[in-house]
Amino acid sequence: NNHANEVNELITQSKRHHLVMLIDDDPVMAEALSLMLKEEDDIEMHYCPDPCNALSVAEKVQPTLILLDMVMPDIDGLTLLSFLRVNEATRQTPIVALSMNEEATLKANVFIKGGNDYLVKLPDKIEMLARMRYHSESYIRMLQRDDAFSALSVSQRKLAASNLRLQQLTMLDALTSIANRRQFEEAVTIEWRRAIRDKTSLSIVMADVDHFKNCNDHYGHQHGDEVLRQVARTMENSVKRPADLTARYGGEEFIILLPNTSKEGAIKVAERLRSEVEALHLEHAGSAVSPWVTISLGVATINPGIDDRGHQSLVREADRALYQAKKQGRNRVVLAKENSAAHPDAPKNRDSV
User: Fold this and answer.
1) Which candidate in 191, 236, 252, 317 is catalytic?
2) Is 191 considered catalytic here?
3) Which end is more exposed in the chain, N or C (fewer Cβ atoms within 10 Å of the end residue's Cβ)?
4) Rounded distance, CA 49 to CA 72, Å?
5) Sign of the CA dihedral with 271 first, then 323, 301, and 180 last
6) How deeply is 201 buried, as exposed, middle or buried, from its count of CB atoms within 10 A (0-12, 13-18, 19+)?
């Protein structure tokens, strides 16, 4: 809004003000033009008698219109016109050629070199003012349009950045700041298709904080939240490949996606995760397993090119393996059995195991 207000203010000011730069070695012409503009409050004139300094003066003055004499010492008008058109500060500034000569060839060359108009000096006042205002206003409108497009482009970039940030936030777990279940579901779908195409294996590790309810009951929910944050951070830092993904699956459950990973590789990753979480030495007086916070993990591996049951089946197998890890005493890694889809579903409340 502030930028839009600034643009509107510039528009308002530019409607009231035309800055005309006269490049002419003849002071009589300058005096005549000055008298012509004496009562025109919206037009200001800047006089440059030396064509050799015209470029530097134009860069400083930033006129909305240039009146350029065609016959001057040291440098002729057509040459200076060419210089003005390649100069970044004046390449789009309207230029009106002034000359005593009405020769058609000279007029044609003016337009070829980039001139906007041609006047035989000294023209009638009404005609002169009309042409000056026309060219100057056209240039000002162009500047306004460019400013508006620039402001719109900035706004669009900011909006795109905000939308991207919002999209990123919807893919993160609010408590732990790692990927959430939604991001995992999208990633596993993509990796499943890639594994089919590349004929590679896909592994999943499911992890659960042992006796987490007891941890909350003993230390309070704030401590429990901090435990989840530290466990999540440790697990995410331990899984290093760009394609690997650690996500909070729900409650005290985490899930790790390991593309192009064999069951042996997945077991190594899971065992490293288990060991590093235990090494945090987070107190857990309510655990029957260890004085420290520990995790149980289930590992499942499928080759999607051979087994077409879908990635949901892979998640279920890892879930059942996790159930077995908890059933066998927790703080351990268990690999899903072959054809584990035939095994009974695990109970929803694993802490009862």
Assistant:
1) 252
2) no
3) N
4) 10
5) negative
6) buried
Q: Tell me: pLDDT of 45 over 90.
A: yes
pLDDT of 345 over the 90 cut? no
Query: How many other CB atoms sit within 10 Å of the CB of residue 165?
Result: 10
What is the DSSP annotation of 214-275?
HHHHHH-HHHHHHHHHHHHHHHHHH--STT-EEEEEETTEEEEEEET--HHHHHHHHHHHHH
Residue 202's nearest CA partner among 153, 262, 245 is 262
Mean pLDDT (the chain, rounded): 87
Q: Report pTM.
A: 0.56
Q: Are strands 65-69 and 95-99 parallel, antiparallel or unpaired?
A: parallel
Higher pLDDT, 352 or 258: 258
- Identify residue 278 by its one-letter amino acid code: E
Q: Are 333 and 299 in contact (CB under 8 A)?
A: yes
Pairing of strands 202-209, 295-302: antiparallel
Asked if the model's pLDDT at residue 149 lies above 50, the reply is: yes
* Mean pLDDT to the nearest integer, 74-87: 92
The verdict on whether omega for the bond into residue 166 sits within 30 degrees of 0, i.e. cis, is no
Gap between the Cα atoms of 88 and 80, Å rounded: 14
What is the per-residue DSSP string for 1-14? -HHHHHHHHHHHHH
Which has more confidence, 245 or 159? Answer: 245
pLDDT at residue 135 tops 90: yes
* 212 contacts 287 by C-beta, under 8 angstroms: no
Find out whether 192 and 202 touch, Cβ atoms under 8 Å.
yes
Q: Which residue has the tokens 């802490």?
A: 351
pLDDT classification of 160: cutoffs 50, 70, 90: confident
Rg of the chain over CA atoms, in angstroms?
A: 38
